[in-house]
């Protein structure tokens, strides 16, 4: 790959910005939402269907792919893009979040983390160097540095110790990543909810120099109000000329609020996970298709949505297949949810471009407050 990774802001509205990330495998329009393909698949979706929703980039998971089918195997088979039939950009997380969640199955030292597989109990070691090696074997376009995701709540002293370890691991990640033209390495800001720790983390990451910067350690149980308080200052602590990625977020109103505060990239399992459990995300808010009120309803999920689900299937049918636990239920609802998320991102990009973000956000919240009112 000879083309360089680059990012440019095209327009701003307040702290919000819209722009473009350029990679050898295609452009990523920002603000961007990345569907989560944890184990080399977005559950219940074909790759071409994910692309049809408007997705420019997918997320893969280092932890899950290193355990099954194995990074070396994926590399022998031509890399993750060929393996899963997705020819556009892929971002892989470093595995740190999953490993840190295995509290009873892991041992952490300065060197890295030794843990037991949740699949078969086998022992593995993950360090900044090994994480970089795995992500290189996978061939991901955007690589995440290895970090410790600080649990919430955490006292200042604990959060500081965790953040400082992540910063040492960030330097090791940068050293191990090396020179890979066409591929990008993102650093991850930590510091829990403490502004001084976030500032210290950002300063360290700036000194190391990354191609983009993630805001980590949020969406871990702190609640939206606390998250927004952190986002009131955290994005501004990071370089203005690089993309900012809020990891693991989130619900539609989380994303809208974060875009207002200057975030460019998002990922979350919610669209696919809620689709598999009978829930649809719409302009009117979340709709639970298990509820009996939908059983005789001939309307689509969202009359303004152009996805195949809303164009071809009624709420009554969706209620039926959800209650009957048919596979098509998860497929149809996941397709709709991912389509809705991409429509929301396109709406945000357009509103920023046209300098009408405030009115767009006001309308977004008003419709969700109005809710999904059934016909009389």
Q: Keywords for this structure?
A:
376 residues, alpha/beta, TIM Barrel, 2 domains, eight-stranded parallel beta sheet, three-stranded antiparallel beta sheet, 16 helices, 16 strands, 42% helix, globular
Describe the protein:
- This protein is of the alpha/beta class.
- It folds into two domains: 263 residues, Alpha-Beta Barrel (TIM Barrel), CATH 3.20.20; 96 residues, no CATH class.
- Helices cover 42% and strands 19% of the residues.
- The chain is built from 16 helices and 16 strands.
- The strands form four sheets. It has an eight-stranded parallel beta sheet with strand order 4-14-13-12-11-10-6-5. A three-stranded antiparallel beta sheet has the order 1-2-3. A three-stranded antiparallel beta sheet has the order 7-8-9.
- The longest helix is centred in the C-terminal third of the chain and has 27 residues.
- The termini are far apart.
- The mean pLDDT is 95.
């Amino acid at each position: 790959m000879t083309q360089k990774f680059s990012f440019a802001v095209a327009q701003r509205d307040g702290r919000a910005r819209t722009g473009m990330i350029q990679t050898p495998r295609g452009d990523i329009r920002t603000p961007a939402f990345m569907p989560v393909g944890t184990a080399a698949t977005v559950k219940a979706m074909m790759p071409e269907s994910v692309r049809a929703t408007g997705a420019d980039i997918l997320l893969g998971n280092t932890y899950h792919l290193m355990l099954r089918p194995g990074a070396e195997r994926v590399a022998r088979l031509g890399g993750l893009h060929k393996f899963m039939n997705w020819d556009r950009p892929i971002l892989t997380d470093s595995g740190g979040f999953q490993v840190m969640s295995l509290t009873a199955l892991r041992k952490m030292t300065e060197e890295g983390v030794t843990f037991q597989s949740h699949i078969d109990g086998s022992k593995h070691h993950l360090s900044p160097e090994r994480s970089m090696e795995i992500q290189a074997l996978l061939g991901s376009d955007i690589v995440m540095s290895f970090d410790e995701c600080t649990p919430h709540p955490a006292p200042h002293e604990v959060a500081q110790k965790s953040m400082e370890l992540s910063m040492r691991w960030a330097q090791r990640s940068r050293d191990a990543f090396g020179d890979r033209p066409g591929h990008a390495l993102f650093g991850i800001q930590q510091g829990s909810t403490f502004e001084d720790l976030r500032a210290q983390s950002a300063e360290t990451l700036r000194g190391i120099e990354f191609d983009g910067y993630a805001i980590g350690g949020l969406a871990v149980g702190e609640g939206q109000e606390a998250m927004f308080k952190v986002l009131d200052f955290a994005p501004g602590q990071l370089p203005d000329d690089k993309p900012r990625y809020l990891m693991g977020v989130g619900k539609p109103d989380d994303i809208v609020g974060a875009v207002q505060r200057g975030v460019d990239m998002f990922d979350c399992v919610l669209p696919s996970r809620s689709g598999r459990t009978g829930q649809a995300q719409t302009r009117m808010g979340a709709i639970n298709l298990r509820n009996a009120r939908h059983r005789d309803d001939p309307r689509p999920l969202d009359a303004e949505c152009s996805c195949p689900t809303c164009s071809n299937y009624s709420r009554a049918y969706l209620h039926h297949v959800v209650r009957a636990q048919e596979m098509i239920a998860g497929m149809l609802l996941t397709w709709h949810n991912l389509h809705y998320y991409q429509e929301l991102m396109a709406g945000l990009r357009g509103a920023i471009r046209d300098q009408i973000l405030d009115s767009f956000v006001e309308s977004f919240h008003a419709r969700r407050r109005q809710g999904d009112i059934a016909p009389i």
